[in-house]
Amino acid sequence: MRLGEVNLHVIRDGGFRLDGGAMFGVVPKVLWETRARADDRNRIRMSTNCLLVETSDGLVLIDSGLGDKNDEKFRDIFGMKDDDSRLPEAISGKGFSLEEVRHVLSTHLHFDHCGWNTRYDGEKIVPTFPNATYWLERSEVAHARNPTQRDRASYDARNWEPLFEAGVAREFDDAAEPVPGVRAVKARGHNADMCVVTIESGGENAVFWADLVPTIHHVPYPWIMGYDLYPLETLANKQEWLPRAHAGEWTCFFEHDPEVACGKLVESARGKLTVEPIAI
Ligand SMILES: [Zn+2]
Fold first, then answer.
1. What pTM was estimated for this model as a whole?
2. What's the Cα-to-Cα distance from 66 to each of 33, 236, 247, rounded to whole Å?
């Protein structure tokens, strides 16, 4: 889709599954199961909707999905399917090569957001995008290297350490703008250092919510993931960002929604924000 002077492409890295209870935190299953059906292991479908921004300053990839370094046990736990089409094919399907990607921006370093930052080349792990600068938030890198017992299962050092070894990692503090108009901004809550990404071009705006609003079902303020380390900060950031996106008619991208990758916020008759999907 077009946004001002840039083109936006949703790049999907296949699906996976997460525990429905963990995805909706304090919201009871009797409420969430009408919107997201659970399988026989109580897992709901999740997508990995990354975003490729085609600008006059080159291609910027925002997040890179699950990657292909995960073993059989991991793939079973998270319900990943072997025949799902993956991020590299999705990029070539849009007519681009991996070499053309100039910037890779990671909203945070959980395994479902930076999996294709790297790939195996024989025994060695190398950057997947050979000509890219990889933008990583400095405090998130520090935390990923020394996580707590509660969140260490979310991190896999293979997704970032090879970038430092290859000299292609570029750390930033709190905010970054890899190309004009594409901005990462810290929005605490999911963890201490996650960023959302805003895109502004020709007077139009879009936002990539990452895990601040992972699916359209997380638009209602109290629908917050149980995974979040600081849920009250997630709440505060949703109360700040969602009305801003609604007022500005921003195009919204939902990274984990299996049905609606993109949409605009609309206000219902009862004053609640909901999503009007945009086909993309
Ligand atoms: Zn996630």
1. 0.97
2. 25, 28, 33
**CA proximity to 178, closest of 52, 263, 2:** 52
3-state secondary structure of 267: strand
Distance CA 27, CA 136 (A): 32
pLDDT digits (tens, 9 = 90+) for 119-152: 999 999 999 999 999 999 999 999 999 999 999 9
- Give SS3 for 33: coil
Cα-to-centroid distance, 210 and ligand 1 (Å): 7
Taking the centre of ligand 1 as the mean of its atom positions, its distance from the CA of residue 153, in whole angstroms, is 13
**Confidence category of residue 83, pLDDT binned at 50, 70, 90:** confident
The residues whose Cβ lies within 5 A of ligand 1, an ion, are 112, 211
Model pLDDT for residues 25-45, shown as the tens digit of each residue: 999 999 999 999 999 999 999
User: What domains lie within the chain, and their CATH numbers?
Assistant: 2-277 (3.60.15.10)
Q: Which amino acid is at 43?
A: R
CA 147, 169, 183, 276 dihedral sign is: negative
Q: How far apart are CA 47 and CA 112, in angstroms?
A: 10
CB atoms inside a 10 Å sphere around CB 74: 15
Q: Which residues of 173-188 are buried (b: 16+ CB within 10 A; e: fewer)?
A: eeebebbebbbbebbb
